[in-house]
Design goal:
By secondary structure, the protein is of the alpha+beta class. It has two domains: 233 residues, RutC-like (60s Ribosomal Protein L30, Chain: A), CATH 3.30.1330.40; 155 residues, 60s Ribosomal Protein L30, Chain: A (2-Layer Sandwich), CATH 3.30.1330. The protein is built from six helices and 20 strands. The strands form three sheets. A seven-stranded mixed sheet has the order 1-20-2-3-6-4-5, covered by helices on one side. A seven-stranded mixed sheet has the order 14-13-15-16-19-17-18, covered by helices on one side. Strand 2 and strand 3 form a beta hairpin. The longest helix has 18 residues. The radius of gyration is 20 Å and the shape is globular. It starts with a strand and ends with a strand.
Length: 415
């Protein structure tokens, strides 16, 4: 077994501690591909406006470069996630995806986000199966229109990846305007139809991502959420970002899986929304981790794949470390990842992908300086998005995906 580094000159250089893509086990995870060529020049003209078509095409060229390095193509991609600086450009991005991707579309989601690099208008990340082509999931009854994407999401290797689900009905109409409870129900009902079509249900969900345009109504959102998801909860991250549907209060996307073994990681401290007093045999309770700030677990492992929640800079006693201090918060956040990985009998070098939400792009250099100290390298794939977070003075949240054994056997694409 070995850790192999694949060198390429066909992707842009990055100043961040990251690989462009990492393959471990049967899965490939890419960083968010920016619209930069291998000389780090921005695609298209950017004088006064963003050349959406040129930037989208360059993101896809970079994605194809990463896929080909591992001898797979777009047909193996199960999910892409796009980050747009201006959601008014989403129809133009979707037109490029529709035209260039072909008929076998993966699951997709798209959110509005401040870009971490100057003058870029988008970035696109992907997950792909090494061993199987993605299979489109088609719900028995129509759910919300999804644009150029698999109708109900995509599956491969026993895993299901959903599209982004806002509170939209089958006719494309917003449901429950101004009512976050009603919007949670509509979005999760849509998701349930897609899970059913994939041969799964809510109990198979291992990771939930939710984007909210504001934190108003966050507790009411959780009230409805726990009617669909029960303990042991999936891992989860809720991030503030812009949504493309007017008056939409949230959008969900999930990963679900069936496997031979499922293990959940929790704190010894009972988290918010956790009602069970008894300890479960399928859960590892970890001293040092903070109690969850919402109804979610710290991590869920299915066989050798682990999805980890958005870890935050909190101590076990529920106190935030380093109010507004990116260095202190990076250290504590990553220490919580260390506790999670050690509880699984793994190490930080089993992490293959991280998604970083940071409140100011000026903090990225200090974040990267401290983040790099937690890995031996080559580093995981990484996506950074500038986004709002749930707690005042919290400036960082870091999600992760790990493959047990990746510390000893993985391939990393670097420039």
């Amino acid at each position: 077994m070995s850790v192999e580094t694949i060198q390429t000159q066909n992707l842009p250089k990055s100043d961040w501690p990251m690989s462009h893509a990492v393959q471990a086990g049967n899965w490939l995870f890419t960083s968010a591909m920016p619209p930069l060529d291998n000389a780090s020049a921005i695609a298209g003209k950017t004088v006064g406006r963003i050349d959406v078509e040129a930037q989208a095409a360059q993101c896809l060229v970079n994605l194809d470069t990463a896929l080909s390095a591992f001898k797979v193509d777009r047909s193996h991609v199960t999910k892409t996630k796009s980050y747009l600086a201006d959601l008014r450009n989403k129809p133009r991005l979707e037109a490029v995806l529709q035209k260039s991707w072909g008929p076998a579309q993966p699951a997709r989601s798209c959110i509005g986000s401040i870009m971490p690099l100057t003058d870029i208008g988008m970035q696109i990340e992907a997950t792909a199966s090494l061993t199987e082509k993605a299979v489109s999931v088609v719900p028995a009854r129509p759910v919300a229109p999804v644009g150029p994407a698999a109708p109900g999401g995509a599956s491969a290797g026993g895993f299901f990846f959903s599209n982004g689900h806002p509170s939209i009905d089958a006719h494309g109409k917003l449901v429950a305007r101004g009512d976050i409870r009603g919007q949670v129900e509509q979005a999760l009902d849509n998701l349930g139809e897609c899970l059913k079509a994939a041969g799964m249900d809510y109990s198979d969900v291992i990771k939930v991502n939710c984007t909210v345009p504001s934190w108003y109504g966050f507790m009411r959102y959780n009230e409805i959420y726990i009617k669909y998801f029960r303990e042991p909860f999936p891992a989860r991250a809720t991030i503030q970002g812009r949504l493309s549907n007017e008056a939409t209060l949230l959008e969900f996307e999930v990963v679900a899986a069936k496997g031979k073994e499922k293990v959940t990681i929790e704190s010894v401290v009972t988290g918010i929304g956790h009602l069970s007093v008894k300890k479960r045999s399928d859960t590892i309770y970890v001293p040092g981790l903070p109690g969850a700030m919402a109804p979610h677990s710290h991590a869920v492992r299915v066989d050798d794949v682990v999805y980890i929640c958005g870890q935050i800079p909190y101590e076990e006693n529920g106190l935030m470390i380093g109010w507004g201090d990116i260095r202190a918060q990076t250290i504590k956040t990553m220490e919580n990842h260390v506790l999670t990985m050690e509880a699984l009998g793994a190490s930080m070098d089993d992490i293959v992908k991280t998604n970083v939400s940071i409140t100011e792009d000026s903090m990225i250099p200090i974040f990267c300086e401290e983040y790099a100290k937690f890995f031996k390298g080559p580093y995981p794939a990484m996506t950074i998005a500038v986004a709002g977070l749930a707690q005042d003075s919290m400036v960082l949240e870091v999600e992760a995906v790990a493959v047990i054994g990746a510390s000893k056997k993985r391939k990393c694409l670097v420039r």
